[in-house]
Amino acid sequence: MDVTNFSSQPHWRHCYRNICTDNFVERKHSFPSPFTTSFKTHSRTKKITMSSEVVFNLEYLTRLEESARTLESTPQQRSEMMFKAQREVDAYLEQLSLDHPTGWVIPPKETQGQDKLVQPGQYQVQSGPNQVQSGPDWVQSAPDQAQSGPDRVQSGPDQVQSGPDQVQSGRGPHETEPLPIQENGVSIDEVLRDFSRIGNEMEREGHPGHMAYVPGNSTAPAAIGDFLAASFNPYSLNVASCRRAVKMQQMIVQWVGRLFGYPSACAGNLTSGGTVATMVAMTTARDHKVPRSKDYSRSVLYLSELTHDGVAKCLSTLGMREAVVRKVPVDDKYRMDVNILRKFIENDVQNNLLPFLVVATTGTTDVGSVDPVPAIRAVATQYNMWLHVDACYGGFFVLCNSAKHLFEGVETADSIAVDPHKGLYAPFGTGLVLVRNGTLLRNSNTRQHGNYMQDQLTNPEDWNPEDLTFEQSAHFRAPRVLLPLQLYGVATFRDALQEKLELAKYLYLRLKGQAHIQVVEPVLSTVLFRIPGVSDNTNRALLREITTDGRFFITTTTVKGVLYLRVIIFCYRTHRQDVDVFINKVKDAVVKMELPEVEFCHAG
User: ω before 479 within 30° of 0 (cis)?
Assistant: First the structure.
């Protein structure tokens, strides 16, 4: 029997409901032949003979339905779950600024200090439509900001010290095993109580003192966006399934494209992060520049020595493990040395290799430096190479007027990767890829639907997200980016990012005048400093002294063979009072180390 057509009839659905409640009533007038005579009831066994060969156990089916209906929550149940979940979130955020940025409680408050290096009103910057001033005497309230400062009270018996290079690994004093997956469910209270323990066993990347790596942040509207996306749960990669969801994603992609000066013919997609965004771009570059797999082994990828490690990782995933990778040294400003790049390419061409891709970075993870994109573009054009720009960390600083010049030439790149889960404070798992010539991206990813989708109405003019990435059945990521932008407006994000640039300058100027400290002038929001003329172990001891009480989390990095302490100011909850406390930490740590008297150290 044709179950699809048969079940679509109202009388069949009514009859089926009766079957599922063990109240089957034979309705001869409702069923066309031959189905009218093929159903017989068996009251003792609660079974129905659907044909001479098939017997249906209605009691079993009813039990299954009753259990399955547990998934169909009521409005009251949803409200109760959301209310209780929100209590856990509020408790975590209330405690967020009180504890160690790596998750452990820290000791009592400490007074912040202030010196006279930067005078009030100096370096004030106006930005955004409301011209909100930022500078040493002003603190911007970021999205979803709870005010915090040096008068916060911290307490707790189980403090854990962080080491010079990493947070202690292994099980911490609060760590427990997650609630196991069981045959039968438990209460929402037990589930949330178990989940909330994660707040005590994680790096708190939204903490104002988390100044390591590139900390992730998330706002309340972004969390609501994820809730809405998961609740409505559209298939957001195809116009035929949900045109509005596709349009929301395309609107974000085109807006970001305009930020970088891309033409409307560009195309892109929201991805799970920067590495996947880079991989989608590199796949397009491979298909366009190295169409034959037999040439993979002589293909050459050019990076700087400070390019993110995820770029080279993509080669293996793309099946180009045998490709050659050239790491180009950086100059004294930590930018790719274009003269050396050119020499590498010339030598490779002479050796019958195939230069196909060069990656420039606007905001290196180690330093925050920006490669000279126009000069690299000229070299790429000369040798018919694809130019990809890694803007994952630094990309959204393009919103800030003071930083726009750093992105000169990006509009000529063949592709760009940028992370909304960094500069737009979206939750982790939010990257974005852009390809200048959208047709090339589409050619590399067009989906050939299976027969089960042959009845789906399609329009060749529709650019479906599933045809612009290798991902299918991906999470509907657009709301987590779009809702905060719609609610707060672009100006709020511009001001928050501009504040971080100003705080990095502020930290640089304050440290520059301190004895025994060498500091690198920041390009974006990353500041490197060290004690010069001493061993690396001494600088690691300085790191331990700064982080030992757990108020701040920073790490070291090594650039051009030199070890530095690295600070990145990126969390939207980090403000001047937090930086002032950090500066006093550095000053006190240096004093405790009893170093020889010096006047001051020049910036590096």
Answer: no
